[in-house]
Design a protein that fits this description.
mainly alpha, 3 strands
């Protein structure tokens, strides 16, 4: 009878090998954009050319270039992603400062007001990021839908 502790390295190795490997999805037809994960980071792939999805989704714009509707959606995703960073970083710093001031206890009601404002900023950041991801997916879907209309499908 094997002991459960002896099997633990095999369980960990199996989980790491299956869950942490890069995705190898490739689009089936030319002219399509897909998201591929390389080194735990998303990349936009169009016709074999990979565009890195940086912290503000800037790689999406060249990946969907040539399609006005997809480009408009990609710009909206980029703007919302930038707003996520511009609101989220000060909100996180403000939250830390407010928690520190609340711990000292001699600042009156200001730490509580700061916690409320910073918390609201972080909640806004969450919703902005979710909407940026939706615009990203919409841009890719709009590009692929229009590519489907342009590229004739073979008939039998």
């Amino acid at each position: 009878m094997t002991r459960p502790r002896a099997l633990m390295p095999y369980v960990v190795a199996t989980v790491l090998a299956t869950a942490c490997g890069p995705a190898r999805y490739k689009t089936s037809s030319p002219g399509r954009v897909s998201i591929e994960y390389r080194y735990f980071r998303p990349w936009y792939v169009r016709d074999g050319v990979a565009y890195e999805a940086s912290w503000a989704r800037s790689g999406l714009l060249p990946a969907v270039s040539g399609n006005p509707r997809a480009t408009t959606l990609a710009r909206a995703s980029r703007r919302r992603s930038l707003a996520t960073w511009l609101i989220g970083m000060p909100s996180a710093a403000c939250l830390g400062l407010s928690l520190g001031a609340a711990g000292e206890g001699d600042y009156g009601p200001w730490p509580a007001i700061g916690l409320g404002v910073c918390g609201l900023g972080l909640i806004t950041t969450f919703f902005l990021d979710v909407s940026a991801r939706r615009y990203e997916q919409d841009a890719i879907n709009a590009f692929n839908d229009d590519a489907r209309r342009i590229i004739p499908t073979p008939t039998r």
